[in-house]
Amino acid sequence: MIDDTSERSRADRPLSSSFDRYLQDKGKGRGGEGGNYRRNVARELERFAEWAAGDRGGEEWVGIVPESADREPTFADLDERVFREYARHLAGDRGLKQNTVQTYYAYISAWCSWCVNEGYLGAHYAQRASATAPLPEDDGRKPGDQQAWTPEQRHALTRYVDERATEAIDAYTTLSNDADQLDRQRARYRALKAARDRALVYVLAYTAVRVGELLRDPDDPRRRGVRWEDLNLQDGSMDVYRKKQQWDAASLPDPVIAPLERYRTLMEPPAERWPVFPTFDQRSLAQSVRAELADRGERPDAIRERRDAYARDLLLALDADIRPASLTTDGARSILRRLTEDAAIEIEHSKHDYLAPHGGRRGMGEVLVRAFGYTVAARYLDNSEEMVRERYSHIEAGELGDAATEALDEIDRPESIDHR
């Protein structure tokens, strides 16, 4: 059973109590004390803490601590409304440029995600739609400035998840027949998790599907995450609820098929309506299992016995056909952040210190535009050709530059110059 005592105690800690550990995790060099990213984040975290305490934000701003309390801001004070106010503060009260507002907010958002993973927060409030609403729209930065997975990064990440999944699956499938039942379950769980992560990476890397079309959005009941019934691995297609508010078929290219097939074989989903990418969050799964078994008429002591017989609630859910929720978009970002770090992939980007989901989509856009042009890329990306030309204008600019160089070389050749 889950003991949430430590989680409650962490919620009561001051925000600043997490800063040193977070910065150490994000820093470079010995002790995690170096790196420009670390210095920039440290500065913005201090500003956020001062703002939360009421020391910044204008004369009428008193901070996020209730007026009756005499203490520092704690994690219990944080929710999406706090981050919405901070986004509004950045956008309107500091005279910052639009791209700077986005960058500074991204620093705080990344810290918030880390706090979720470390147990300080129960949800990634900073990325909720209502929290980010006050942030300025795109200010016209060149699309090339947005993160796009490079071929080297894509290959490094897929190679890492391949190795990790192969190792976990082999460890499970080669267990001896007389292995302890719980040990077998633990091995299967590790294999399932590694296989799920690999399939997710491949889909994000090669399909160019938006992460919001693939996974669950808690704020939009229509986006419940793709299910196995939505996939046709034989035809290489997947039905997704598009950004344009309608269902449509997306392509599953060859590199994606094998990881999905291997993953499905390992999972053996009890029904086609099961999510392709279920959550592995233990707290969420425990709640689902308890609630469903209770609805089926089982008493608390019987439910406890059934759960105790399994190493993880996910395995009980599979055997009992208790359909879990799909992984959320925030969950996918957490997985990619972990995998990027574990694979030791270097990221040089002002906004993201990991391979973000949208970077996979933009990376495929780069590949398709360069290989087949804007029309084909637009169809694959489910965008208008006009928008694709705008977002990948740096490619056309580079090609025109090459053409100009070639023309100048031709004109400036000695034999082409008339010396009369």
TrEMBL record:
InterPro entries for the chain: CB (IPR044068), DNA_brk_join_enz (IPR011010), Integrase-like_cat_sf (IPR013762), Integrase_catalytic (IPR002104), Integrase_recombinase_N (IPR010998), Tyrosine_recombinase_XerCD (IPR050090)
- Give start and end of each Tyr recombinase domain: 168-405
- Chain spans, region Disordered: 1-36
Superkingdom of this protein's organism:
Archaea
The record places domain Core-binding (CB) at: 10-116
Q: What are the UniProt keywords, alphabetically?
A: DNA integration, DNA recombination, DNA-binding
Which SUPFAM superfamilies would you find in this protein's record? DNA breaking-rejoining enzymes
Where is the sequence biased in composition, kind Basic and acidic residues?
A: 1-13, 22-31
Q: Name one GO molecular function term.
A: DNA binding
Please give a single GO biological process term from the UniProt record.
DNA integration
Stored PANTHER family: INTEGRASE_RECOMBINASE PROTEIN MJ0367-RELATED, PHAGE INTEGRASE-RELATED
The protein's name in its UniProt record:
Site-specific integrase
| Lineage, top ranks | Archaea, Methanobacteriati, Methanobacteriota, Stenosarchaea group, Halobacteria
